[in-house]
Amino acid sequence: MKSKDAKIFLEALDELEKEKGISKENLLSTVEQALLAAYKKNYGEEENVEVEIDRETGDVKIYEIKTVVPTEDLYDAAVEIAYDDALEIKKRVKIGDTIKIEVNCEEFRRNAIQNGKQIVIQKVREAEREYVYDRFKVREHDIINGIIRRIDERKNIFIEFDGIEAILPPVEQSPADTYRVGERIKVYLAEVEKTNKFPKIIISRKHEGLLRKLFELEIPEITSGLIEIKAVAREAGSRAKVAVYSTDSNIDTVGACIGQKGLRIKNIVNELNGEKIDIVIWKESVEEFVSAVLSPAKVISVEVVEEENTARVIVDNSQLSLAIGKNGQNARLAAKLTGMRVDIKTLDRVEEGE
Fold first, then answer.
1. Domains of the chain
2. CA triple 191-197-200, angle to 5 deg
3. Number of Cα atoms under 13 Å in the Cβ half of residue 114
4. CA angle 325, 328, 332 (to 5 degrees)
5. What does the pLDDT look like over 50-106, one tens digit per residue?
6. For residue 325, how many other CB atoms are within 10 A of its CB?
Protein backbone atom coordinates (compact mmCIF):
# COMPACT_ATOMS: atom_id res chain seq x y z
CA MET A 1 0.00 0.00 0.00
CA LYS A 2 1.58 3.25 -1.10
CA SER A 3 1.93 5.79 1.69
CA LYS A 4 -0.24 8.36 -0.13
CA ASP A 5 -3.02 5.86 -0.83
CA ALA A 6 -2.75 4.53 2.71
CA LYS A 7 -3.17 8.00 4.16
CA ILE A 8 -6.25 8.68 1.99
CA PHE A 9 -7.65 5.31 3.07
CA LEU A 10 -7.28 6.19 6.77
CA GLU A 11 -8.84 9.62 6.21
CA ALA A 12 -11.80 7.98 4.52
CA LEU A 13 -12.27 5.74 7.57
CA ASP A 14 -12.17 8.82 9.82
CA GLU A 15 -14.97 10.39 7.77
CA LEU A 16 -17.05 7.21 7.95
CA GLU A 17 -16.69 7.17 11.72
CA LYS A 18 -17.87 10.79 11.96
CA GLU A 19 -20.71 10.62 9.44
CA LYS A 20 -22.09 7.13 9.97
CA GLY A 21 -20.84 6.22 13.42
CA ILE A 22 -19.00 3.15 12.13
CA SER A 23 -15.97 2.38 14.30
CA LYS A 24 -12.68 2.98 12.47
CA GLU A 25 -10.94 0.39 14.64
CA ASN A 26 -13.58 -2.23 13.87
CA LEU A 27 -13.24 -1.56 10.15
CA LEU A 28 -9.44 -1.83 10.30
CA SER A 29 -9.68 -5.11 12.23
CA THR A 30 -12.12 -6.45 9.65
CA VAL A 31 -9.80 -5.44 6.80
CA GLU A 32 -6.86 -7.11 8.55
CA GLN A 33 -8.78 -10.37 8.95
CA ALA A 34 -9.91 -10.30 5.32
CA LEU A 35 -6.39 -9.56 4.05
CA LEU A 36 -5.05 -12.38 6.22
CA ALA A 37 -7.54 -14.81 4.66
CA ALA A 38 -6.56 -13.60 1.17
CA TYR A 39 -2.86 -13.98 1.93
CA LYS A 40 -3.27 -17.54 3.22
CA LYS A 41 -5.36 -18.47 0.22
CA ASN A 42 -2.61 -17.30 -2.14
CA TYR A 43 0.53 -18.23 -0.18
CA GLY A 44 -0.36 -21.21 1.96
CA GLU A 45 -2.85 -22.06 4.70
CA GLU A 46 -0.27 -23.88 6.81
CA GLU A 47 1.74 -20.77 7.69
CA ASN A 48 1.14 -18.89 10.93
CA VAL A 49 0.79 -15.32 9.62
CA GLU A 50 -0.43 -11.93 10.84
CA VAL A 51 -1.46 -8.92 8.78
CA GLU A 52 -1.19 -5.53 10.46
CA ILE A 53 -2.27 -2.10 9.26
CA ASP A 54 -0.33 0.72 10.89
CA ARG A 55 -2.91 2.97 12.62
CA GLU A 56 -0.81 6.08 11.94
CA THR A 57 0.48 5.57 8.40
CA GLY A 58 -1.92 2.98 6.97
CA ASP A 59 0.98 0.82 5.79
CA VAL A 60 0.22 -2.89 5.46
CA LYS A 61 2.73 -5.32 6.91
CA ILE A 62 2.75 -9.12 6.85
CA TYR A 63 4.49 -11.11 9.57
CA GLU A 64 5.26 -14.79 9.91
CA ILE A 65 4.84 -15.89 13.54
CA LYS A 66 7.30 -18.66 14.45
CA THR A 67 8.22 -20.53 17.59
CA VAL A 68 11.95 -20.78 18.45
CA VAL A 69 13.17 -24.40 18.71
CA PRO A 70 16.62 -25.90 19.36
CA THR A 71 18.87 -25.69 16.30
CA GLU A 72 19.72 -29.40 16.39
CA ASP A 73 16.03 -30.46 16.37
CA LEU A 74 13.98 -31.28 13.31
CA TYR A 75 11.33 -28.60 12.96
CA ASP A 76 8.37 -27.44 10.84
CA ALA A 77 9.64 -24.42 8.90
CA ALA A 78 6.09 -23.15 8.35
CA VAL A 79 5.57 -22.41 12.04
CA GLU A 80 8.99 -22.90 13.69
CA ILE A 81 12.50 -21.41 13.45
CA ALA A 82 15.88 -22.71 14.58
CA TYR A 83 17.42 -20.93 17.57
CA ASP A 84 20.56 -19.86 15.62
CA ASP A 85 18.45 -18.34 12.84
CA ALA A 86 16.24 -16.59 15.37
CA LEU A 87 19.32 -14.94 16.97
CA GLU A 88 20.06 -13.23 13.66
CA ILE A 89 16.62 -11.62 13.72
CA LYS A 90 16.35 -10.85 17.41
CA LYS A 91 19.29 -10.68 19.82
CA ARG A 92 17.48 -11.57 23.01
CA VAL A 93 15.53 -14.71 22.28
CA LYS A 94 14.99 -18.00 24.13
CA ILE A 95 13.84 -21.46 23.18
CA GLY A 96 10.03 -21.46 23.19
CA ASP A 97 9.68 -17.76 22.38
CA THR A 98 7.63 -16.63 19.39
CA ILE A 99 9.08 -14.06 17.02
CA LYS A 100 7.56 -11.98 14.23
CA ILE A 101 9.36 -12.00 10.89
CA GLU A 102 8.28 -9.40 8.36
CA VAL A 103 7.49 -10.86 4.95
CA ASN A 104 8.50 -8.82 1.92
CA CYS A 105 5.55 -9.40 -0.39
CA GLU A 106 5.26 -6.27 -2.52
CA GLU A 107 2.64 -7.58 -4.94
CA PHE A 108 0.28 -8.43 -2.11
CA ARG A 109 0.91 -5.07 -0.42
CA ARG A 110 0.15 -3.20 -3.66
CA ASN A 111 -3.24 -4.90 -3.97
CA ALA A 112 -4.05 -4.47 -0.29
CA ILE A 113 -5.46 -0.93 -0.63
CA GLN A 114 -7.93 -1.97 -3.35
CA ASN A 115 -8.95 -5.05 -1.39
CA GLY A 116 -9.31 -2.92 1.72
CA LYS A 117 -11.61 -0.48 -0.07
CA GLN A 118 -13.90 -3.27 -1.26
CA ILE A 119 -14.06 -4.77 2.23
CA VAL A 120 -14.89 -1.40 3.77
CA ILE A 121 -17.62 -0.73 1.18
CA GLN A 122 -19.18 -4.08 2.02
CA LYS A 123 -18.98 -3.45 5.77
CA VAL A 124 -20.48 0.03 5.35
CA ARG A 125 -23.40 -1.44 3.41
CA GLU A 126 -23.91 -4.04 6.11
CA ALA A 127 -23.78 -1.36 8.80
CA GLU A 128 -26.28 0.80 6.91
CA ARG A 129 -28.66 -2.13 6.53
CA GLU A 130 -28.35 -2.85 10.25
CA TYR A 131 -28.93 0.82 11.03
CA VAL A 132 -32.10 0.94 8.89
CA TYR A 133 -33.37 -2.30 10.41
CA ASP A 134 -32.78 -1.15 14.00
CA ARG A 135 -34.29 2.26 13.34
CA PHE A 136 -37.52 0.89 11.88
CA LYS A 137 -37.81 -2.21 14.07
CA VAL A 138 -38.41 -0.11 17.19
CA ARG A 139 -41.36 1.57 15.39
CA GLU A 140 -42.92 -1.69 14.23
CA HIS A 141 -46.73 -1.77 14.76
CA ASP A 142 -46.84 2.01 15.04
CA ILE A 143 -47.71 4.99 12.86
CA ILE A 144 -44.83 6.76 11.13
CA ASN A 145 -44.91 10.03 9.19
CA GLY A 146 -43.27 10.52 5.84
CA ILE A 147 -43.28 12.57 2.63
CA ILE A 148 -44.37 11.20 -0.74
CA ARG A 149 -41.38 11.58 -3.05
CA ARG A 150 -42.55 9.86 -6.23
CA ILE A 151 -45.15 7.55 -7.75
CA ASP A 152 -44.11 5.09 -10.44
CA GLU A 153 -46.06 3.68 -13.39
CA ARG A 154 -47.16 0.70 -11.29
CA LYS A 155 -48.68 3.09 -8.74
CA ASN A 156 -46.09 2.26 -6.09
CA ILE A 157 -45.79 5.19 -3.67
CA PHE A 158 -42.20 6.00 -2.62
CA ILE A 159 -42.25 7.61 0.82
CA GLU A 160 -39.26 9.14 2.58
CA PHE A 161 -38.83 8.85 6.34
CA ASP A 162 -35.92 11.08 7.43
CA GLY A 163 -33.70 10.14 4.50
CA ILE A 164 -34.81 6.49 4.24
CA GLU A 165 -37.25 5.46 1.52
CA ALA A 166 -39.94 2.77 1.75
CA ILE A 167 -42.55 1.67 -0.78
CA LEU A 168 -46.31 1.70 -0.26
CA PRO A 169 -47.50 -0.80 -2.90
CA PRO A 170 -51.02 -0.72 -4.40
CA VAL A 171 -52.06 -3.74 -2.31
CA GLU A 172 -51.48 -1.70 0.88
CA GLN A 173 -53.17 1.48 -0.36
CA SER A 174 -56.66 2.54 0.72
CA PRO A 175 -59.15 3.14 -2.13
CA ALA A 176 -60.27 6.34 -0.35
CA ASP A 177 -56.80 7.90 -0.45
CA THR A 178 -55.41 10.33 -3.00
CA TYR A 179 -51.63 10.40 -3.19
CA ARG A 180 -49.71 13.48 -4.32
CA VAL A 181 -45.96 13.99 -4.54
CA GLY A 182 -44.68 16.30 -1.81
CA GLU A 183 -47.54 15.67 0.62
CA ARG A 184 -47.00 14.38 4.14
CA ILE A 185 -48.62 11.04 4.93
CA LYS A 186 -49.22 8.76 7.90
CA VAL A 187 -48.69 5.04 7.37
CA TYR A 188 -48.76 1.98 9.58
CA LEU A 189 -45.44 0.16 9.95
CA ALA A 190 -46.72 -3.40 9.80
CA GLU A 191 -43.48 -5.38 9.72
CA VAL A 192 -39.70 -5.08 9.43
CA GLU A 193 -37.73 -8.14 8.31
CA LYS A 194 -34.02 -8.78 7.93
CA THR A 195 -33.02 -10.05 4.49
CA ASN A 196 -29.74 -10.77 2.72
CA LYS A 197 -30.02 -7.33 1.15
CA PHE A 198 -31.95 -4.26 2.33
CA PRO A 199 -34.40 -4.79 5.22
CA LYS A 200 -37.95 -5.50 4.08
CA ILE A 201 -40.16 -2.66 5.37
CA ILE A 202 -43.90 -3.26 5.05
CA ILE A 203 -46.00 -0.11 5.37
CA SER A 204 -49.75 0.14 4.92
CA ARG A 205 -52.76 2.43 4.73
CA LYS A 206 -55.16 -0.56 4.70
CA HIS A 207 -53.99 -2.39 7.81
CA GLU A 208 -56.36 -2.57 10.78
CA GLY A 209 -53.42 -1.52 12.94
CA LEU A 210 -53.57 1.96 11.38
CA LEU A 211 -57.11 2.47 12.69
CA ARG A 212 -56.19 1.07 16.09
CA LYS A 213 -53.23 3.46 16.40
CA LEU A 214 -55.30 6.44 15.25
CA PHE A 215 -57.75 5.68 18.08
CA GLU A 216 -54.83 5.61 20.53
CA LEU A 217 -53.53 8.95 19.24
CA GLU A 218 -56.91 10.71 19.42
CA ILE A 219 -58.40 9.18 22.56
CA PRO A 220 -56.37 9.70 25.77
CA GLU A 221 -58.54 7.22 27.70
CA ILE A 222 -57.21 4.45 25.45
CA THR A 223 -53.59 5.50 25.93
CA SER A 224 -54.07 5.63 29.72
CA GLY A 225 -55.72 2.20 29.79
CA LEU A 226 -59.16 3.36 30.96
CA ILE A 227 -60.62 2.15 27.66
CA GLU A 228 -59.38 -0.95 25.84
CA ILE A 229 -59.71 -1.71 22.15
CA LYS A 230 -60.80 -5.35 22.06
CA ALA A 231 -61.06 -5.85 18.30
CA VAL A 232 -60.88 -3.99 15.00
CA ALA A 233 -62.37 -4.98 11.64
CA ARG A 234 -61.90 -2.87 8.56
CA GLU A 235 -62.61 -2.68 4.86
CA ALA A 236 -60.26 0.18 4.08
CA GLY A 237 -61.76 3.26 2.51
CA SER A 238 -65.32 2.12 3.13
CA ARG A 239 -66.30 1.00 6.62
CA ALA A 240 -64.83 -0.25 9.89
CA LYS A 241 -66.01 -1.54 13.25
CA VAL A 242 -64.13 -1.06 16.51
CA ALA A 243 -65.04 -2.93 19.70
CA VAL A 244 -64.13 -1.06 22.90
CA TYR A 245 -64.48 -1.86 26.58
CA SER A 246 -63.93 -0.29 29.99
CA THR A 247 -64.01 -1.80 33.47
CA ASP A 248 -64.97 1.63 34.82
CA SER A 249 -68.78 1.88 34.77
CA ASN A 250 -68.55 5.68 35.17
CA ILE A 251 -66.96 6.07 31.74
CA ASP A 252 -69.13 6.64 28.67
CA THR A 253 -66.98 4.40 26.51
CA VAL A 254 -68.55 5.18 23.14
CA GLY A 255 -68.94 8.86 24.03
CA ALA A 256 -65.25 9.14 24.92
CA CYS A 257 -64.31 7.67 21.55
CA ILE A 258 -66.62 10.02 19.68
CA GLY A 259 -65.47 13.07 21.65
CA GLN A 260 -67.11 16.40 22.30
CA LYS A 261 -69.20 17.39 19.27
CA GLY A 262 -67.80 14.28 17.57
CA LEU A 263 -64.36 15.88 17.22
CA ARG A 264 -62.24 12.82 18.08
CA ILE A 265 -63.93 10.42 15.70
CA LYS A 266 -64.11 13.16 13.06
CA ASN A 267 -60.31 13.54 13.16
CA ILE A 268 -59.91 9.81 12.61
CA VAL A 269 -62.46 9.74 9.78
CA ASN A 270 -60.73 12.70 8.12
CA GLU A 271 -57.35 10.96 8.30
CA LEU A 272 -58.94 7.94 6.59
CA ASN A 273 -60.62 10.16 3.99
CA GLY A 274 -64.23 9.52 4.92
CA GLU A 275 -64.09 5.88 6.01
CA LYS A 276 -67.20 5.22 8.14
CA ILE A 277 -66.50 3.89 11.63
CA ASP A 278 -68.93 2.03 13.90
CA ILE A 279 -67.99 1.93 17.59
CA VAL A 280 -69.52 -0.93 19.56
CA ILE A 281 -69.26 -2.00 23.17
CA TRP A 282 -67.47 -5.31 23.65
CA LYS A 283 -69.50 -7.85 25.63
CA GLU A 284 -68.21 -10.90 27.47
CA SER A 285 -71.31 -12.78 26.35
CA VAL A 286 -70.70 -13.84 22.75
CA GLU A 287 -74.42 -13.69 22.01
CA GLU A 288 -74.66 -10.11 23.27
CA PHE A 289 -71.48 -9.10 21.45
CA VAL A 290 -72.66 -10.50 18.10
CA SER A 291 -75.97 -8.71 18.56
CA ALA A 292 -74.18 -5.41 19.27
CA VAL A 293 -71.77 -5.82 16.36
CA LEU A 294 -74.62 -6.18 13.84
CA SER A 295 -75.83 -2.70 14.71
CA PRO A 296 -77.67 -0.73 13.33
CA ALA A 297 -79.81 -3.84 12.75
CA LYS A 298 -82.01 -5.03 15.62
CA VAL A 299 -81.43 -8.69 16.39
CA ILE A 300 -84.13 -11.02 17.76
CA SER A 301 -81.79 -13.77 18.93
CA VAL A 302 -78.28 -15.20 18.61
CA GLU A 303 -77.37 -18.87 19.01
CA VAL A 304 -73.68 -19.77 19.21
CA VAL A 305 -72.66 -23.17 17.83
CA GLU A 306 -69.16 -23.52 19.26
CA GLU A 307 -68.13 -26.67 17.40
CA GLU A 308 -68.84 -24.86 14.12
CA ASN A 309 -67.54 -21.49 15.40
CA THR A 310 -70.78 -20.04 14.10
CA ALA A 311 -73.27 -17.49 15.40
CA ARG A 312 -76.79 -18.17 14.09
CA VAL A 313 -78.60 -14.85 14.06
CA ILE A 314 -82.32 -14.29 13.67
CA VAL A 315 -83.70 -10.90 12.62
CA ASP A 316 -87.05 -9.55 11.57
CA ASN A 317 -87.69 -9.33 7.82
CA SER A 318 -87.41 -5.55 7.96
CA GLN A 319 -83.94 -5.78 9.54
CA LEU A 320 -82.35 -8.28 7.15
CA SER A 321 -80.86 -5.78 4.72
CA LEU A 322 -79.46 -3.71 7.62
CA ALA A 323 -77.93 -6.77 9.27
CA ILE A 324 -76.29 -7.99 6.07
CA GLY A 325 -75.37 -4.51 4.86
CA LYS A 326 -74.58 -3.28 1.37
CA ASN A 327 -72.98 -6.12 -0.60
CA GLY A 328 -72.80 -8.11 2.66
CA GLN A 329 -70.37 -5.66 4.26
CA ASN A 330 -71.99 -5.42 7.71
CA ALA A 331 -72.07 -9.21 8.06
CA ARG A 332 -68.45 -9.53 6.87
CA LEU A 333 -67.21 -6.94 9.34
CA ALA A 334 -69.20 -8.62 12.13
CA ALA A 335 -67.53 -11.94 11.29
CA LYS A 336 -64.06 -10.33 11.31
CA LEU A 337 -64.70 -8.54 14.58
CA THR A 338 -66.06 -11.59 16.42
CA GLY A 339 -63.82 -14.15 14.74
CA MET A 340 -66.88 -16.27 13.97
CA ARG A 341 -68.98 -17.21 10.99
CA VAL A 342 -72.18 -15.15 11.18
CA ASP A 343 -75.24 -16.87 9.69
CA ILE A 344 -78.16 -14.42 9.42
CA LYS A 345 -81.72 -15.57 8.78
CA THR A 346 -85.14 -13.95 9.04
CA LEU A 347 -87.73 -15.09 11.57
CA ASP A 348 -90.06 -16.13 8.73
CA ARG A 349 -87.47 -18.45 7.22
CA VAL A 350 -86.77 -20.04 10.60
CA GLU A 351 -90.48 -20.63 11.21
CA GLU A 352 -90.75 -22.19 7.77
CA GLY A 353 -87.97 -24.59 8.78
CA GLU A 354 -85.28 -23.30 6.43
1. 3-133 (3.30.1480.10), 139-204 (2.40.50.140), 207-282 (3.30.300.20), 293-353 (3.30.300.20)
2. 15
3. 5
4. 105
5. 888 888 888 888 888 899 999 888 888 888 899 898 898 888 889 999 998 888 777
6. 18
